[in-house]
Amino acid sequence: MVMAMKSHPERVFPNDQQQALLDSARLRLLEEGELLRWNELIEREHYLHDATLVGEILRYVAVDEQGEWIALLGYSSASLHLRARDQWLGWTAEQCKRRRHLITQNSRFLILPHIRCPNLASRLLKLAGQRLEEDFPRVHGHPVVLVETFVDPDHHLGACYQAAAGPHRGMGSGRTRLLPKARPPEGAVGAAASPAGRRVAAGGADA
Questions:
Q1: What is the residue range of 69's domain?
Q2: What is the pLDDT of residues 143-155, one digit of tens each?
């Protein structure tokens, strides 16, 4: 089922100060001793108010030129079953079992409330895609070729994922690895992480 997206507002262009932030923002893995702060911010400011991630996890913090935190991203293992994703990939049930580890889920994404900057979300998602290609093999021993996420249409348009090259949308009706509480239907968004990812997603050889 294709998700009907809300109409987009008029595009807002960054001013000089905001453009400087876009140009200087960088993404790094969470460092030792920072987990408590990361969790506290997610639990307080993210609309799910839950910092729990499961499976193969990577946590990132986005910083400005002075090293101050501006956003948080969390990645975890993909949903066990997600009809929209699995139909789009065209994988058999057996291929799904063998290749599910090649998918990661952007489970948390939070731009801190005091930050106001057009295009920052899509900029950070693009940076995250680049980091995942490098960090996932180093940390977890294998690449990822696809990123999935969920966008609650009552809270977000999901425009930043489309701008960051998310080619697919559908209503999520699958099972996640952990459901701490009931959640409304969300739009599943998938994006191939690389040209190799597109080949695997299309049914090529396992990585």
A1: 16-201
A2: 998 888 877 666 5
